[in-house]
Amino acid sequence: MQLKISPPLQEDASTIEVRRRRFGLLWRLRIIQFMRGEDSLFRLQKSWSFLVFLTLLSIFGIGRSLAQAAGNAAVPPIPHAKEIHLKHILVIAQTKGFEHDSIPDAMAAIYNMGHESGLWDTEMRTDTELLTKKDLGRNAKNLNYFDLLIFASTTGELDLDASQKADILSFIDDDGKGFVGIHAALDTNYNWPEYGEMIGGWFDQHPWSTFNAPIINEAPDFPAVRHFPKAFVKYDEIYQPKAWSRDKVNVLLSLDPGKLDYANNPRIHRADHDFAVAWSKSYGKGRVFYSTLGHTEESWQDPDIRIMYFEAIRWALGLTEGSTESHSRPAAAP
Asked: Could you tell me which CATH number the domain at 89-316 has?
């Protein structure tokens, strides 16, 4: 007769762990029974069994703790993966003219809105190096990397050569990327005609400086202004645009002409008294949004202003829909 000897049973780690836990539970039950006096056999054996139990438990517990410590030391914790955002935004805040105190507030707001929503990451610069499609090396990003360009109260003639200007226009016109202009973005690049065409015009004074501006919501269905009421007031500095025409943009917000003081104000240059506060427009395949709101530091703590720019960015990124078609000026209130 031949005896068949079966190979030893191989148990995996999970099976061994189950056995260990059952062993521990059994001994815990026995010790409880012993303490309650419910197990006569255990009472008879307590003089030696209890000591054996404590010895085994001590050895097993210490050994397991040492093993865990050794394992933790040998295997470093898994690093957190970098969060991947849906879109990439480049904020430029170079100033060659007036420097607005609100620029840091605007840049921080844009960064925080992207971080908190998870919709975009933000690159913030006060130079113009990245405004190119050329390979910069050094892991530096260029326009090809970004989905949206924001000018945050830029002023004067920015440091841009001819190729950079062509790349910015191509970024919007040909690539269908977005552009958002904040406040003094209109006070920028006067010697670059195509820039004025792209954004919609240029700054031509602020007739009332910073004041309680009476504003009309002309497009309550547009994402960036739908949270505003039909008429409201904001304390801000409202720019008067030149080389600007209502029939080339979609006016979203405008000053209420019936509530403005025109007396003895030589800075008023628009005979039509048409003062747009925010507009949307197309430029080739791209989307463009501009608003004069955001002059003061306090404005960036205003939820209404933050929502407006948040929704404007989402729209310019193509995440929401809104018209760029021009419309006639609303009839004056009686």
From this structure: 3.40.50.880
